[in-house]
Amino acid sequence: MRTHTWSAAQVKEGIADPGVKRLTDLPDPLADPVGARVTGRLRDRGWLPQSPEDGFGAGQPQFTYELPLAGRTEADLLGGMNQLWRRNIKKAAKEGVEVRVGDDIKAFHDLYVHTAERDRFTPRPLSYFTTMFAAMRAEDPERIRLYLAHHQGDLVAAAILVRVGAHAWYLYGASSTGKREVRGSNACQWAMIRDSLAAGCDVYDLRGITPTLDADDPHVGLIQFKAGTGGRAVRYAGEWDLPLRPKIYRAFDLYMRRRGR
Questions:
Q1: Angle at 179 between CA 216 and CA 150, to 5 degrees
Q2: Where would a tag sit more exposed on the chain, N or C end, judged by fewer CB atoms within 10 A?
Q3: H or E element that contains 40
Q4: Alpha-carbon 36 to chain mean position
Q5: Digits of tens for pLDDT over the chain (261 positions)?
Q6: E-state strands within the chain
Q7: Do 63 and 78 sit in the same domain of this protein?
Q8: Measuring CA to CA, how many Å separate 34 from each of 28, 55, 165?
Q9: DSSP label at 72?
Q10: Which of 201, 223, 251 is the last residue of a domain?
Q11: What are 131-176's pLDDT values in tens digits?
């Protein structure tokens, strides 16, 4: 459930303003009245919000980036992107990058592990992805798709798209360190956006971002990349706890905070 949204222009202005450090520092966000009522009632009933500094909790991210598709054309979507995104999409096409939907989960996972080593995050095992594809395809063969971008026979980027009803999600991505200049990741994204539009989706969801707008924070590149598509940053209600034993809850919360330092 959404509580606030910020336009791509607001995000861009915030990054350029040294006095703005987080999305929540930006003035005049678009507030969702339903989200406000729900979160207000949770607080009134003793629930406590879990709002980690980086925007990622134990489960789903509280901040995401979404590209509205309803009522728009491919030309509209390209026109809403920044100059760098449009140039990179054209660059990929000019270099001959080919994006196809495939089934080689092992090839994706190999590239994903390479990406994890380069970007210093812990990758999920291959079994996680094979199980995910099997479960989702058993429900609907078109529920999940794997996009593979090749350049002259080399796999340069790959991404996973999930679609439920009129909502499409970019779930996981990977890219090679070599041949980054051919812009395989942009080609993958554009292919998924176009297919989501053709499937009648209202939203293309680029998933989690951190709320930082601090130009010196290494995480700011994530929101810069996604904001280049146009669209909007979105804050959701996030995760909440109901302390049944307040004293024990506070002690445990303090312990977890100190452990995370």
A1: 120
A2: C
A3: helix 33-44
A4: 23
A5: 899 999 999 999 999 999 999 999 999 999 999 999 999 999 999 998 886 655 555 567 889 999 999 999 999 999 999 999 999 999 999 999 999 999 999 999 999 999 999 988 899 999 999 999 999 999 999 999 999 999 999 999 999 999 999 999 999 999 999 999 999 999 999 999 999 999 999 999 999 998 999 988 888 988 999 999 999 999 999 888 899 998 898 898 788 777 755
A6: 2-7, 30-31, 48-50, 63-68, 98-102, 144-151, 154-164, 167-175, 203-208, 232-236, 239-241
A7: no
A8: 17, 21, 22
A9: -
A10: 201
A11: 999 999 999 999 999 999 999 999 999 999 999 999 999 999 999 9
Domain boundary, last residue among 201, 231, 247:
201
Q: Provide φ and ψ at 146, rounded to 5°.
A: -110, 120
Q: Which DSSP string do the residues of 83-136 spell out, in sequence order?
A: HHHHHHHHHHHHHT-EEEEE--HHHHHHHHHHHHHHHT-PPPPHHHHHHHHHHH
Q: Are residues 102 and 164 in the same domain?
A: yes
Q: Are 155 and 143 in contact (CB under 8 A)?
A: no
- Give the integer Cα–Cα distance in Å for 156 and 243: 48
